[in-house]
Write a structure and sequence with these properties.
This protein is of the alpha/beta class. The protein has two domains: 260 residues, 3-Layer(aba) Sandwich (Carbamate kinase); 147 residues, VC0802-like, CATH 3.30.2130.10. It is built from 13 helices and 18 strands. The strands form four sheets. An eight-stranded mixed β-sheet has the order 3-6-2-1-9-11-12-10, sandwiched between helices. Strands 14-15-13-16-18-17 form a six-stranded antiparallel β-sheet. Bound molecules: aspartic acid and magnesium ion.
Length: 424
């Protein structure tokens, strides 16, 4: 017997038939004698619709009241998950399974006060643990919790993944299964490289990089949480027949296991190739090369909530002037240029240059820690295809390369084959 948290995303609960199908997945695990808690998203498209309602409320002409109140945003958008948790409990009951829905405030799942992007602080798992022990399935509404102001708080888009991992940690589950519309995590985006392979296992740290770089399978925060609490997390498809052979396999269900690196015996040097579109590069030319310059640049950008990613500073030739280049999301370029313009005196640069429409392609693998020459092969392969590199950053387990947008797909495919990730 094991304790399993099963999470179903929006496409998996998109309509009543799919909710019925989800109930069959749950029934399979219950029938196998496991203790089960379920976390659900809203029906696909629902959260967007709810957000749209909040944002499109007509405004009184000339009013300068805030556009909307974050607490009421949360009250509205959290409702999608309330609906699916109740519906799934009904579907389970109709199959003779003892099930009960739970809203975030009922457990409660305590969050901080950042309405709209709240962080989970604490989950009281006693009630659902006791009920699981009595054979009841808890169906928990994902994406929501209770803030310190005693009001509903939502966890940011994609937050149900985080709810699921947090609940798995709170009830000390043996496994957290994230059911979605893809059947696992791939070596790269299969829409770009059809030879991409599904990974059997990926280490938490690698998955964190993949998720941060736009592999949209999991909310980044859920991976952070899984890593901290060592929650073994499976990404798997809800669209497979719930009763197909192997679906109930306890150790090795179909999908990708995100786990501690110690669990990965055959570690490849490179695990995957990820990419992030819509990057922009900003360069400050002929900056004074003195203490405090970086702080003068990045302090105001941080205050403006602009996420800076790659940062490259040149060593100055004469010890007095240098250049600094960094990347921001394309959508933030104008804002960043404004902030840097406002601070021109304080920073002390000569000119600003910027370019949008760039792509960051990254090679990821914990095996890199113990292998030399991984970066060199990437540079060689891209050079052979005539792809120009604009900036490079590396970490222990990642090489990120900034290139022109139109070369993104070619670069991804090239690197995918360079490291032997193509399907055999
Ligand atoms: N329903 C929420 C969203 O669409 C949360 C989730 O699905 O994870 O962002
Ligand atoms: Mg999701």
């Amino acid at each position: 017997m094991a304790r399993i948290v099963m999470k179903f995303g929006g496409t998996s609960v998109a309509d009543l038939n799919r909710i019925h199908n989800v109930a069959r997945h749950v029934k399979r695990e219950v029938d196998a004698g496991h203790e089960v808690a379920v976390v659900v998203s809203a029906m696909s498209g629902k959260t967007n619709e709810l957000v749209g309602w909040v944002e499109n409320m007509p405004k009184v002409a000339g009013s300068n009241a805030p556009f909307y109140d974050a607490r009421e945003y949360d009250a509205v958008v959290a409702s999608g998950e309330q609906v699916t948790s109740g519906l799934l409990a009904i579907a389970l009951q109709s199959m003779g399974i003892n099930a009960r829905s739970w809203q975030g405030w009922q457990l409660p799942i305590r969050t901080d006060n950042a309405h709209g992007a709240a962080r989970i602080l604490d989950i009281d798992g006693t009630d659902i643990t006791r009920r699981m022990g009595e054979g009841q399935v808890a169906v928990v509404a994902g994406f929501q919790g209770l803030g310190p102001d005693n009001r509903l708080a939502t966890l940011g888009r994609g937050g149900s993944d985080t709810s699921a991992v947090a609940i798995a940690a709170a009830v000390k589950a043996d496994r957290c299964d994230i059911y979605t519309d893809v059947d696992g995590v791939y070596t790269t985006d299969p829409r770009i490289e059809p030879k991409a392979r599904r990974l059997k296992k990926i280490a938490f740290e690698e998955m964190l990089e993949m998720a941060s770089l736009g592999a949209k399978v999991l909310q980044v925060r859920s991976v952070e949480l899984a890593m901290v609490h060592k929650v073994r997390t499976f990404v798997r498809s809800s669209f497979e027949d719930p009763d197909a052979p192997g679906m109930g396999d306890l150790m090795n269900p179909p999908g990708t296991l995100i786990c501690d690196e110690d669990e990965i015996v055959e570690q490849e040097v490179v695990t995957g190739i990820a990419y992030a579109k819509d990057e922009a590069q900003i360069s400050l030319r002929r900056l004074a090369d003195r203490p405090g310059v970086s702080a003068a640049i990045f302090g105001p950008l941080a205050e403006a909530h602009i996420n800076v990613d790659m940062i490259v500073q040149n060593i100055s030739e004469d010890g007095s002037k240098t250049d600094m280049t960094f990347t921001v999301p394309s959508g933030d370029v104008d804002k960043a240029l404004r902030v840097l313009g406002d601070n021109k005196e304080k920073i002390g640069y000569d000119v600003i240059q910027s370019e949008s429409g760039l792509v960051k392609v990254s090679v990821i693998g914990i095996g890199m820690r113990s292998h030399a020459g991984v970066a060199a092969s990437a540079f060689r392969a891209l050079a052979d295809k005539g792809i120009n590199i604009k900036a490079i950053t590396t970490s222990e387990i990642k090489i990120s390369i900034l290139i022109d947008g139109p070369y993104a797909e070619l670069a991804v495919r090239t690197l995918h084959s360079t490291y032997g990730l193509d399907k055999s």
